[in-house]
Amino acid sequence: MTLASAATTGRQSLLERLEAAWRRSDLLFSLLADEALYVRPIALRQPFIFYVGHLPAFGWNQVCRGLLGRTSALPRFDDRFARGIDPVGVDQYDGAEQWPHPTEVLGYRDRVRDALRGSFDDVAALEGKDVLAHRGRIYQIVIEHELMHHETLLYMMQQLPRHLKKKPAGLPDYRFNGAAHGGTVRVKGGEVILGADFERVPFGWDNEFPAHPTRVGDFAIDRTPVRTIEWLEFVMAGGYQKPELWNAEAWAWRQRVGHDKPAFWRREGSRWLYQTLFDEFPVEQVADWPAYVSWAEADAWARWRGRDLPTEAELHRAMYGTPHGEPRGYPWGEAASEARHGNFDFTNWAPTPVGAHAEGASAWGMLDAIGNGWQWTKSRFAGFPGFTAYARTYPGYSADFFDGHHYVILGGSWATDRALVRRSFRNWFQPHYPYVFATFRTVDREDARGARG
């Protein structure tokens, strides 16, 4: 294959991925009732109509305006939909914007998509002159941004009343059985390589670089994430009412907002019910699903059990490390990610029983290393030594959140696209944000030899 034909093939692949991301975006927005577009189900996020405009605005601002310097016919939309929000230190965002009509926003979306389809030759002309044009990196930014927002849209939709969304036909059946047994596994200490070398991977966000070696000691870690039934035990034991289990900031937040249960739970008389995207079940029926909670809740549960959350390096070691030799490309080895390895990439559209994907086990025997729920760490989000915000079109992607108020989560959930299932990928959220499909497991560093099979 010649260099020219290889470049053409690469552009075609990127365009196909872009079109696929747009199709899924359109599918997700089609699940909303018309009146839901202006609803804000999470007080720290914008209404859905913002995201209808934000996704194309991001593509325009990155490629056409940011890289190619084109002038927009609708600059007011480029700016209005440019950036989402993540307010720190407040419990809700008091936005009172007047949003355009959906017809206007959808017209803007279609114009941007056409512009992006026609931009590939101009971007290719910058190959060798701009790092964002190299191998279509700017399109990777747009594609992965869209994929990440699919998950945002879904956990927002999960907070909507059922009459405001439409359940599509043909979804997989829920799975309630087949969980693996729990216990802990021992992980031998050693070197951990966080991040990646910029020139050795096809794409990564700025916080994934440069490769950062560090070392961890021996530790024991839960074989599976904490289950919903275990969280119910915490609730029934009064865990939300015991200040000694919470750090001072988390306890103040819990009292201030009255948070006394996971965000996807509700109480009906003496029963606890679990809300999925479209349905509801008694908590006992989903007993073996992972517990989705905030960092603050996970930290309190770990303290209740006399354990701790893993650091980013420890969780990375448990996910990708091996007793001897180099880390694996994936927890299960070097084979590309498939549905048999874990619950990700919209295979199930809901959690599955923990540890049900034995073929996705790490070298240490840890299950659900990837998929079924992002996993909290005790590490605050920060750049690795030598961090550079290489994308001049999006310099604040990571750096704006190096504020000590966000914690790293790794792994992915059922709503995480397989493109994001890579060893260097990092995600992060505030400690009191309970809506993410995020679970956790705990570690014991004092007596790793006490690991239970």
Task: Describe the protein in words.
The model is unreliable at 1-6 (pLDDT under 50). The protein has 2 domains: 3-164, dinb family like domain (Four Helix Bundle (Hemerythrin (Met), subunit A)), CATH 1.20.120.450; 172-453, Alpha-Beta Complex (paralog of FGE (formylglycine-generating enzyme)). The protein has 11 helices and 12 strands. Helix 2 runs antiparallel to helix 6 (137-157). The strands form 4 sheets. The chain has a 4-stranded mixed sheet. It has a 3-stranded antiparallel sheet with strand order 1-4-12, with helices on one face. Strands 5-6-7 form a 3-stranded antiparallel sheet, with no helix packed on it. It has 453 residues and is an alpha+beta fold.
**Assembly state:** single chain
> What does the radius of gyration come to?
22 Å
The average pLDDT value, as a whole number, equals 94
Count of helical regions:
11
User: What is the overall silhouette?
Assistant: globular
Top CATH class of the largest domain = Alpha Beta
Name of the CATH homologous superfamily of the largest domain: paralog of FGE (formylglycine-generating enzyme)
What's the end-to-end separation, in Å? 51 Å
Query: What is the chain-wise order of helices and strands?
Result: HHHHHHEEEEHHEEEHHEHEEEE
Strand proportion = 5-15%
For the sheet with most strands, the description reads:
4 strands, mixed
Helical coverage, percent range: 25-40%
Flag low-confidence runs.
Answer: 1-6
